[in-house]
């Protein structure tokens, strides 16, 4: 043993021992509703919640000592009597029939395994070799010089595996008995303590409790022998059956309770958002591992009242049987916090009963995404989104205003316009009634294609594309990326007509920036994120400033006056009255103002043959984007008859969400930018 021990580097052992004094085991992360109290679901690889020794029943503390290390309070990390006893027993059996590991040694092994960063370290921590055993003994002795017996016992009880995915005493108490560790009786504690040696063999939840009962009784006898129980109490306890109240903890977004099923989509967006945050690791895998092992407390950003309105107005309960997805996202101007996310689908992994896909190229066995799906249909995942049509006219208009062009910029828009800038491309308007002299107010209100192609020429298509990027849009298809590239962006004339794919999340957030006087805030699915010690989760900016991860991240993209001018024009499509100009007599969604009942701006959007339809609307308080499209087959047109659905969804949601709130008006633009 001395020869083997000499091979171990003393410095490495001391370094690892110091690590174990601060290392904590993996812990479950909890996702809360906006009240910060209601648990929606959890994220874990190992279900565990760290519990202080003062919150663990003395019965449990005594039972684990009786089960695993009778001399725990007498030795100093290594028990010489135990080593000698195991040596004799193993020599007689020509194998390993008895262990000599103390609770401290077992904790060292568990802590080394749990803190391992690669498979090699895991193997080294658990390998059945003399070298590993000697290192373990050395570290156990050193650890007892640094930590008290109570600290070691606390860490052991929080690290041990009890079976049924229960890691640590909190999880074991909840899973097997549906109670806290502080409430455990002597019988229950002895049952759990008996599991640590072999969770599968002594599993009390199996059909035959014979071995589990025998192991429990062994622990009870030891508790009596050590003076923790009287002989009569131990005998009476041994006569009791094992009474379980099994609980299976929810894990991940599919486990969100059914009454909040639609919230699963925001939960799913949270995971995708989390996986992109450098604060939680260097890559996606590290970040998701941190979510499942870091013990975070996460509070969602949604507003239950707004979410309920969104769910009602896209028919999450009554309209799930259509291939056309009708979804809505509501964002808060000035913070970027997502206040609602709903779609006429059920959030569920069970898709076997879904009908076949409407896409003829999908294959004969591919299921559609309704009524059940976990696809990120509203954005935040890997799906490209949907062509957003004329809602994109906001970007060249905003770019022109920010470049100094006034709202009354006038152009005699023909029904059909041949663009020499875009190599003879010749778009036309949806109706001959759109022809004639137009300004930004009337051109936006009537959605005059030829006016906006001309306006985009004046400011430069690339400027509009780059502005859209600054407002959060991303190009997810090869075609969009090619057109948005520096080499081709200035020739992307059709950009203003919304030929690019976008998501409701992106569009709600982009329009929210206009509502916030040109201040763009990244989409944020949380109100708060707390570390396991209760402190807010933080990250360090490139400039060296420490900031909370859950705080809004905003930047000024265009001038406040340009944003206010764009809003003034955007009041025209909704039937509202702008502060400074004329809408030209009619608009594409003139019912919105009457429905919302307060100042409102926005824009309609449809694609060729009405394959999809959109409406993005906003007040000073909220921005909402709704779409209707077939996510499985973009060529399955929704038709003109359903193009009003997003308009109604946004109008009704804004009305319901703001009911009872004070009416706020938009700040009018300056005379300078009106022209």
TrEMBL record:
GO cellular component terms attached to this protein's record: outer membrane-bounded periplasmic space
Catalytic activity: [GlcNAc-(1->4)-Mur2Ac(oyl-L-Ala-gamma-D-Glu-L-Lys-D-Ala-D-Ala)](n)-di-trans,octa-cis-undecaprenyl diphosphate + beta-D-GlcNAc-(1->4)-Mur2Ac(oyl-L-Ala-gamma-D-Glu-L-Lys-D-Ala-D-Ala)-di-trans,octa-cis-undecaprenyl diphosphate = [GlcNAc-(1->4)-Mur2Ac(oyl-L-Ala-gamma-D-Glu-L-Lys-D-Ala-D-Ala)](n+1)-di-trans,octa-cis-undecaprenyl diphosphate + di-trans,octa-cis-undecaprenyl diphosphate + H(+); Preferential cleavage: (Ac)2-L-Lys-D-Ala-|-D-Ala. Also transpeptidation of peptidyl-alanyl moieties that are N-acyl substituents of D-alanine
Pfam families per UniProt: Transgly, Transpeptidase
Keywords: Carboxypeptidase, Cell shape, Cell wall biogenesis/degradation, Glycosyltransferase, Hydrolase, Multifunctional enzyme, Peptidoglycan synthesis, Protease, Transferase
Superkingdom as given in the UniProt entry: Bacteria
Residues of the Glycosyl transferase family domain: 40-223
Molecular-function GO term, any one: serine-type D-Ala-D-Ala carboxypeptidase activity
Penicillin-binding protein transpeptidase domain sequence ranges: 328-632
One GO-annotated biological process of the protein: regulation of cell shape
Membership in a protein family: In the N-terminal section; belongs to the glycosyltransferase 51 family. In the C-terminal section; belongs to the transpeptidase family.
The protein's name in its UniProt record: Penicillin-insensitive transglycosylase
Organism: Micromonospora sediminimaris
């Amino acid at each position: 043993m001395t020869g083997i021990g000499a091979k171990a580097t003393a410095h490495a052992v001391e370094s690892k021992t110091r690590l174990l004094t601060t290392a904590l085991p993996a812990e479950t992360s909890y996702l809360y509703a906006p009240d910060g109290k209601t648990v929606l679901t959890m994220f874990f690889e190992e279900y565990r919640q760290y519990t202080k020794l003062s919150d663990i029943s003395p019965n449990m503390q005594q039972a684990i000592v009786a089960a695993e290390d009778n001399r725990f309070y007498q030795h100093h990390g290594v028990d010489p009597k135990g080593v000698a006893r195991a040596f004799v027993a193993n020599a007689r059996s020509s194998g390993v029939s008895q262990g000599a590991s103390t609770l401290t040694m077992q904790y060292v092994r568990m802590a080394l395994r749990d803190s391992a960063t690669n498979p090699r370290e895991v193997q080294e921590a658990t390998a059945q070799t003399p070298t590993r055993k000697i290192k373990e003994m050395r570290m156990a002795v050193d650890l007892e010089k640094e930590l008290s017996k109570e600290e070691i016992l606390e860490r052991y009880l929080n690290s041990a595996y009890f079976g049924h995915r229960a890691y640590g005493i909190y999880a074991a108490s909840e899973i097997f008995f549906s109670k806290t560790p502080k409430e455990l009786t002597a019988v229950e504690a002895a049952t759990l303590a008996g599991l640590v040696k072999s969770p599968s063999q002594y599993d009390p939840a199996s059909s035959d409790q014979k071995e589990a009962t025998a192991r429990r009784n062994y622990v009870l006898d030891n508790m009596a022998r050590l003076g923790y129980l009287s002989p009569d109490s131990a005998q009476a306890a041994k006569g009791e059956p094992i009474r379980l109240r099994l609980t299976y903890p929810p894990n991940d977004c599919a486990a969100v309770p059914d009454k909040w099923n639609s919230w699963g989509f925001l939960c799913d967006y949270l995971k995708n958002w989390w996986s992109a945050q450098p604060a939680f690791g260097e890559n996606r895998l590290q970040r998701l591992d941190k979510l499942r092992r870091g013990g975070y407390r996460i509070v969602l950003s949604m507003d239950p009242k707004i979410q309920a309105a969104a769910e009602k107005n896209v028919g999450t309960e009554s309209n799930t049987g259509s291939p056309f997805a009708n979804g809505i996202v509501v964002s808060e101007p000035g913070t970027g916090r997502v206040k609602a996310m709903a779609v006429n689908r059920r959030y569920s992994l069970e898709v076997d009963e879904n009908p076949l896909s409407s896409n003829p190229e999908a294959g004969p066995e591919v299921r559609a995404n309704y009524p059940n799906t976990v696809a990120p249909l509203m954005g935040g995942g890997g799906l490209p989104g949907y062509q957003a049509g004329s809602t994109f006219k906001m970007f060249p208009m905003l770019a022109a205003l920010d470049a100094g062009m006034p709202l009354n910029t006038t152009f005699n828009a023909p029904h059909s316009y041949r663009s020499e800038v875009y190599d003879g491309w010749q778009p036309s308007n949806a109706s001959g009634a759109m022809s004639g002299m137009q300004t930004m107010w009337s051109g936006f209100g009537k959605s005059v294609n030829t006016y906006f192609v001309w306006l985009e020429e004046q400011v430069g298509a690339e400027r509009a594309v780059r502005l859209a990027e600054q407002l959060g849009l991303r190009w997810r298809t090869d075609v969009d990326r090619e057109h948005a590239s520096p080499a081709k962006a200035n020739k992307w004339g059709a950009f203003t007509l919304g030929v690019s794919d976008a998501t409701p999340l992106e569009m709600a957030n982009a329009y929210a920036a206009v509502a916030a006087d040109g201040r763009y805030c990244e989409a944020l699915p949380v109100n708060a994120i707390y570390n396991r010690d209760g402190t807010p989760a933080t990250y360090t900016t490139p400039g060296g400033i420490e900031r909370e991860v859950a705080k809004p991240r905003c930047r000024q993209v265009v001038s406040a006056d340009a944003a206010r001018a764009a809003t003034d024009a955007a009041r025209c499509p909704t039937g509202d009255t702008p502060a400074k100009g004329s809408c030209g007599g009619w608009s594409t969604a003139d019912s919105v103002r009457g429905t919302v009942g307060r100042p409102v701006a926005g824009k309609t959007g449809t694609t060729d043959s009405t394959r999809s339809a959109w409406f993005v609307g906003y007040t000073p308080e909220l921005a909402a984007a709704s779409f209707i499209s077939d996510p499985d087959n973009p060529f399955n047109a929704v038709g003109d008859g359903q193009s009003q659905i997003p308009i109604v969804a946004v109008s009704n949601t804004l009305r319901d969400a703001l009911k009872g709130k004070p009416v706020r008006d938009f700040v009018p633009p300056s005379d300078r930018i009106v022209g």
